[in-house]
Design goal:
Length: 898
């Protein structure tokens, strides 16, 4: 990093603006006959809306609204800058423009209110290309957010003139089904913010909750209207399994978190509505754009008319859905995180290639300063089409200049640059470089002719202006370059600029920007902000945890001639170390949820909140290690640590308990069970499965031996608990399953369903072998079967191999069975606990100290562990003897009643 900074310092300062603000030119793979043109780049773009007059309003997540005019030019000044909470998925996330915009020039925005932990819907009055200062009208404040994710924000006006608002669950899935929360819903209000009386829940709810139009959503990031039919589709970003396209209908429940994807045997909520289409994460991770192709003047071929276009953030694909048939096809690939599709009335299509980092983690901050707006056009042939034109340039005498272009069509392309209409010898690349320009070069016009086997296209001419004026000299007064910070600090910045020709420049000539640098990439912290000499930025305490980070301020000054110059100041963090150790030495930690093996030295920015968790338990060397405490006496295994200036050490101390030598459960695999899901002997495959933690995701459980769909499995054996006490058993299944434990049917889930987790709390005794049988069937699609447990000393985790046995181990000596009473002493109830190699019929008798028979009975003794309860209510306190006979053996035990 230091060498990179030194190289920057050796670079002419005026060139920094070009080096840091220039973006890579990349294009999407489109079908033959389609081309695209880049309208704008270098944006934190997250959404857009098209006005009736052809202007495109583009949202930048950090709080800025930009306009691309009807000629395709990005206007230099923003329509509006709005302070927002820009952490992670929060920010300026939604925009809608009413169809009568020319008569009622309001722009509707959905944003996260800074310092308030909730989203807001407001409208701002437009006057030409600017928002009227002070014109904000707050229409609706949403409920408090539980976290930084699932913020949604899509908005549109329906054919009924109402404003529809898509709201995420705010990181708490329970909100989606809670009618006392606006989160996880589609809302419907009038343009003035009032709530229409024909909303489906208007008479059932009070206040702002009457705005609820539909419920059961996780993160409905996109929403689009078919203006011809009036249908509204929304793309709901899924959790672990499915992305959904939903048709929004009044009063319907779309299932989250009870159902993800199409219903598959689950018990649906009232008024449940299945998605129109759902796809697995094998095809992507987040459905973030959608548009009906039903323009007034279609340009695309007829086979695209009426289709629903949708994009996935991770796959980089834009696909089409035929709403009539459900048929899916791929339209485009290798888009750089495509979001926010719009089909324009003229038949073209706009989309945002957001770029930036993947994922939705707090560290990623879903940030970008390389977002671009593209327009897709159909030409019907593979001839070159200029997608990116060279830009005009203004430079001082002696500087160097680059011109650049990008084309769509069928490669390979040939390039020939021209100056004032004449070929430039040797200028046959996509980029033209000029060195040490002079005043004689001023007013020259440069263009490029692009050709291929099917034709040619010519870029617009770009004028080079060369002036003898010198660039202005901006100066950052604070912070000092190289100064230090602690997470949570407020960075105050202040600057000025002087110019040889214009003197001291006013604040209106200045523009600030702050980037957060992480390793070899950046995140925008303050987007380009013009017209101020000073300001401040509060450094988050929850942020990127890699210590290779710093902030870089950019101050750009522009003089009256149009020349610009940029200077930088960098601020670096204080750092300290903390050390994670354990006794014994190899029990892992979880740092921000990621497993780490001790001993571990961690360098961190001072002031950050770090999420540290020792393992609740860890299996190693025939033992389970259970967390006892830290060496400072703390019993909390999981804590938030505010990194101090000094180094620290944490040592987690564990108690060891022996585990067993199990090998797993016996699995018998059966092919083609038929519609009734009946086991037909013999099995195709028999094997020992060490653990039951399977997520086959449409793959075969035994490639080459078993199919990927339509099969059944039966697992049998014994579970031996490590500890006494209540255990929570978790069974996750897709499709159907059922489970018996010690002869009792504890899970009966014998129906097709998507991946669903069920739980049951059961008291288990250590050292007993509980017979277990699990039966499972798989129809088509996803497949999963997972058996987990949780105990006071064991975190939620798969039942380990060491505690699973395909058959019962030998009992000590020649015993056919063992028997125990618990609790003992007892109160009104005592349990006869047996462990047997055979299935036996047992009889028992209970005698008092006078030899009188006071209770008697019998029960079936199962192979393995089984329990029979005896009612001792109404018996006097004292000592009793229990005699048990089974399989020709007799056992006598003492019982104390209290």
């Amino acid at each position: 990093m230091k060498s990179a900074i030194l190289n920057l310092l050796r670079t002419p300062v005026w060139l920094l603006a070009f080096l840091f603000f220039a973006k890579n030119l990349t294009a999407t793979n489109l079908p033959f006959g389609f081309v695209e043109v880049k309208l704008a780049d270098g944006l934190d773009a997250v959404g857009m809306a098209l006005a009736p007059d052809g202007r495109l309003f583009v949202l930048e997540k950090f709080g800025q609204v930009r306009i691309i005019d009807s000629t395709g030019q990005l206007l230099p000044e923003p329509f509006l800058y709005l302070p927002v909470d820009n952490f992670n998925e929060r920010g300026l996330d939604g925009i809608a423009i009413p169809p009568d915009f020319e008569q009622n020039p309001w722009v509707y925005l959905y944003y996260t209110v800074p310092g308030a932990n909730h989203n807001r819907v407001s409208r701002f009055r437009a006057d030409g290309n600017f928002a009227v200062p002070g014109s904000e009208e707050i229409l609706l404040d949403l409920d408090e957010l539980s976290g930084p994710h699932h913020n949604a924000g899509a908005m549109l006006f329906g054919n009924d003139g109402m404003l529809y608002i898509a709201v995420g669950d705010g990181t708490d899935a329970n909100n989606a089904q809670d009618m006392n929360s606006l989160l996880g819903k589609i809302l419907r209000i009038r343009p003035d913010g009032s709530i229409p009386e024909d909303n489906p829940f208007y008479n059932q709810l009070e206040g702002k909750y009457r705005a609820i139009y539909a419920l059961g959503f996780r993160n409905p990031f996109s929403m689009t209207l078919d203006p011809q039919s009036g249908r509204i589709f929304s793309g709901d970003v899924g959790g672990y399994y499915r992305e959904e396209i939903n048709e929004i209908l009044p009063g319907r429940n779309y299932g989250w978190p009870l159902i993800e994807g199409k219903i598959a045997g689950q018990n649906p909520p009232d008024n449940y509505q299945d998605p129109v289409y759902a796809y697995s994460h094998a095809d992507g991770c987040a459905i973030v754009g959608g548009a009906f192709y039903t323009p007034q003047n279609p340009m695309f071929p007829a086979n695209y008319h009426g289709k629903y276009f949708f994009s996935d953030y991770c796959s980089g694909k834009i696909k089409t859905l035929d709403p009539a048939t459900g048929f899916i096809s791929t339209f485009a690939t290798e888009a750089n995180r495509p979001i926010s599709l719009i089909a324009a009335p003229d038949g073209t299509m706009y989309y945002i290639a957001r770029g930036g980092l993947a994922g939705g983690s707090a560290e990623a901050n879903t940030a970008s300063n390389e977002g671009a707006v593209w327009r897709i056009i159909y030409t019907g042939n593979g001839a070159p089409f200029v997608s990116v034109h060279p830009a005009p340039r203004l430079v001082s005498v002696g500087e160097n200049v680059d011109f650049e272009t990008l084309s769509s069509g069928t490669p390979p392309f040939q390039y020939q640059w021209q100056r004032d209409g004449q070929d430039i010898p040797g200028a046959t690349g996509r980029t033209l470089q000029l060195f040490n320009v002079t005043l004689a070069d001023s007013a020259s016009l440069f263009r490029c002719i692009v050709t291929n086997a099917e034709g040619s296209d010519t870029t617009r001419e770009a004028m080079l202006r060369v002036t003898s004026s010198q660039r202005p000299q901006p100066l950052i007064l604070s912070p000092a370059d190289g100064s230090r910070y602690v997470a949570g600090d407020t960075l105050f910045f202040k600057g000025m600029a002087e110019d040889n020709e214009d003197g001291l420049l006013p604040a209106s000539a200045l523009r600030w920007r702050l980037d957060f640098h992480h390793d070899d990439h950046t995140h925008p912290s303050i987007g380009p902000t013009p017209g101020i000499e000073e300001g401040y930025f509060v450094i988050p305490k929850v942020d990127e945890t890699d210590p290779d980070v710093w902030f870089r301020f950019y101050l750009t000054a522009k003089d009256n001639s149009g020349l610009e110059n940029t200077t930088i100041a960098e601020v670096f963090p204080y750092k300290s170390n903390f050390y994670l150790r354990s006794k014994p030495a190899s029990v892992p930690y979880f740092l921000e949820g990621n497993p780490k093996d001790p001993p571990l030295a961690v360098q961190s920015v001072v002031g950050l909140y770090r999420d540290i968790a020792a393992s609740r338990h860890h299996y190693q060397n025939d033992s389970i290690y259970v967390f006892r405490e830290f060496d400072n006496g703390s019993k909390e295994y999981h804590f938030t640590y505010e990194v101090p200036m000094h180094d620290s050490t944490f040592t987690a101390i564990y108690d060891a308990y022996p585990t067993d030598d199990g090998s797993g459960l016996l699995g018998s695999y059966y092919d083609d069970p038929g519609p009734d899901h009946i086991f037909t002997e013999p099995p195709v495959l028999t094997r020992i499965d060490s653990v039951l933690d399977f997520v086959w995701s449409g793959l075969s459980p035994a490639p080459g031996q078993m199919p990927a769909n339509y099969y059944m499995v039966r697992w049998e054996g014994f579970i031996k608990p490590i500890f006494d006490g209540y255990h929570t058993l978790y069974l996750t299944t897709d499709d159907g399953s059922r489970m018996w434990l010690a002869g009792d049917l504890i899970f009966d889930l014998w129906y097709p369903q998507g991946p669903t987790e069920y739980s049951r709390e059961i008291f288990l005794k250590k050292d007993l072998y509980y017979p277990v049988r699990i039966e499972y069937f798989q129809d088509a699609g996803e497949a999963a079967l997972r058996l987990w447990w949780e105990h006071e000393f064991i975190g939620k985790s798969p039942v380990p191999q060491s505690q699973l046995f395909p058959k019962l181990p030998d009992l000590p000596g020649d015993k056919a069975f063992e028997v125990n009473l618990f609790p003992n002493p007892a109160g009104n109830l005592v349990n006869i606990e047996t462990q047997s190699h055979l299935e036996l019929t047992a009889s028992w008798e209970l005698f008092n100290t006078l030899g009188q028979l006071v209770r008697t009975g019998n029960f079936d003794m199962l192979t393995g562990a089984s329990t029979r309860s005896i009612d001792t209510d109404n018996l006097q306190s004292g000592i009793y003897l229990l005699r048990l006979n089974a399989g020709g053996e007799e056992v006598i035990l003492k019982l104390v009643l209290q």
